[in-house]
Amino acid sequence: MSNMIFCYHCHAQHPREQMRLVVSKTGKRWRCIMSIEAAKKTRAEREAFGRKVSAENKADARARLKARTAVSAF
Ligand SMILES: [Zn+2]
């Protein structure tokens, strides 16, 4: 079929309307929107997780600091 394009990400062919031309270090490549969206979602999840962990670490550090301050007051 002429409207099928090879997707470098899936190593498979997808219909032309599902493909996006992306520019990478090695040049222009066709990649399907499914893999782009999946990567975006993964990154968002990772960032959300990173934010949560750093917020917890900060809260933990604050709690430790408070505890130390309370002890040294005596
Ligand atoms: Zn694909």
Task: Describe the protein's architecture and organization.
This protein is of the alpha+beta class and 74 residues long. It contains 1 helix and 4 strands. It has a two-stranded antiparallel sheet. The termini are far apart. The model has no long low-confidence stretch (mean pLDDT 91). The structure holds zinc ion (ZN). Zinc ion (ZN) binds next to helix 1.
Can you lay out the helices and strands and say which pair or pack?
Blueprint (H helix, E strand, L loop, with lengths): L3 E4 L4 E4 L3 E6 L2 E6 H40 L2
Antiparallel strand pairs: 1-2, 3-4
The protein binds zinc ion.
The site of zinc ion has 7 residues, from α1.
Q: What is the total number of structural domains? A: 1
Radius of gyration: 23 Å
Bound molecules: zinc ion
Number of helices: 1
Mean pLDDT: 91
The backbone outline, from C-alpha atoms, is rod-shaped
Q: How much helix, percentage-wise, in residues? A: 40-55%
Widest sheet: strand ordering: 1-2
